[in-house]
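assembly run, all chains below
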Amino acid sequence: MSAPLLELDGLSLRFDGPAGSLHVLESVSLAVAEGESVGLVGESGSGKSVLARAVLGVHPGPAAPSLTGRILLEGRDVTDGSSRRRAVSMVFQDPSASLNPVVRIGRQVLEAVPPAERGSRARQRAAATELLRAVGLPDPGRRLRSYPAELSGGQRQRVGIAAALAAQPRLLLADEPTTALDVTVQQRVLDLIGELRRERGMALLLITHDLGLLAGRTDRIAVMYAGRVVEDGPTERVLAEPRHPYTRALLAVTPRLSPRRRPPLPQIPGGLPDLREPRTGCPFAPRCERALPECATRPPLLRAGAGHTVSCWAAEGVPV
Amino acid sequence: MRTLLTRAVRALAVIALLGMLTMALPLLLTGDPAVAVLGVEATPEQLAAFTAALNLDASPPERFAHWLGGAVRGDLGTSLVTGAPVTAEIGERLPVTLELLLCGQLLALAITVPVAMRSAWRPGGVVDRISTVLAYLLLSTPAFVLGLALILVLAVGLAVLPATGWAAPDDPVEHLRHLVLPVLTMGLTEAAVLVRVLRADLIATLRTPYILAARSRGLSPWRLLWTRALRPSSFSTVTLVGLGLGLAFGGSVLVETIFAVPGMGRLAASAIEARDFPVIEAVVLLSGVTVVLVGTLVDLVYGVIDPRARHAAAH
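ok done. output:
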């Protein structure tokens, strides 16, 4: 088997500030193969957005985090922040905030193309129009001169997707790309991302807090909790036979659209652990129904089936 | 179109109000303004002639209307001190002050933009700390102290520039040599304020998701700052530059006095001292009109900076 397109190997990430450190990611291992689509699920604060930005190599604000472990992209180690060579680009969460309000759409869409490769004005216009057409923006030629404020939320996210495609990435990161959009628009934007991925043979890492979105959309699901990947497996298996108590709890709180049974939504009691301390045992233990005394120490990584791993003391499986 | 009209009406109202206030100035003096100017030994005939010449018996709105009538014909009255037409006095001094102001603001911007960018890129870094210390040093130094310090170093110590005075543009070299010190004084003082403001706005902009997105698409820091971050960060700076240009008639009094520059500030100061009402009235109204015009200009620049402001104005 060839090396995966993206490989995170024991990646830990820490923000150091005057008020102390935040241990956001703890020894995360995750791989995305060429052309594969992976869903990354977790609640707010689980570290999934930080993970995406680490892969992308940018962080907001002037404080750079300290990283240990490795980020391999196309087999190259890019942990030290070296250039991604446009292999990866990202669709951001809130299209209203992630498009520059004072720059015309046409210019923003081509941002990822280095000036040296852009060619004549006519060629740039053609390239930008083509990108906007690919994401289904109506009247793309005229939209080049529009500003983001002149578009609807869904149209803005289409522009955001077009800007991500401009670099012709082999891996597309999508960080909750539909959270800021109307429910009716969400499905269409996700469908668009799926179509573009298949057409262009890109790999996709789709980040969401909503497990229900991933059914039928991704090959695999990785579940994150408090900066760790606690379960990773084929989408159908994870949804049908979740092995980690946290995955089960997440599935239980995912609303279903079936009219038969609509009980009040259960909640997962408790909250995320304090990220200022490194986690010693299983971070989910305080909220877990099946917590054991062993959970105070780091749980083993178990193989629960083909391509299905889980990190839990209470789960059944063969140690990896 | 309608906003343009309302804006014009508003501007005219401000100018009319200012005009009436200005015309009330002589009446605010205790006692008879004619006596105050001519002295107690003036004959009743002299006093009456003075009162009639300045139309002092009329109410401020009437005086303003009278003044406006003259102004549209290019007649702003005659100076009580020199006897020359006020238009001639102003015509001589206005270009000097305008040149000083424009050069001062341009210098301030030329210093501000690169320094603020460099500081905002690494807040707390070496460049940021040095520029912060220098900015506060300048902010806490009054313009006249800075001016004298510059004279001491560049004119007295190194003796490369004239300490004070002015040379007409007929002699370009001398003209520029006389321009340097007053422009430096104005530009540095203004830059100290602008750097602080633009730096803070740039830091806020650099933390926005759209800058993060642009960075992730591989824009170089240089292109990021100039083509993506500067425009959305420049509102306060543009406002301050506009205020500086509009209000500097008053502000340039200090600089013009230190460097003996024959501009509007000096004209205003000496006219106030001599109670030369026609000159005072003309200077005050002219600076009022300038403030209003620059304010309108700044509003238009907002629209250029941010398309959203343009839309808000159009609806």
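The two ends of chain A are 18 Å apart (CA to CA).

Chain A has two domains: 1-87+171-254+276-319, 95-168.

not gonna interpret more than that til we talk
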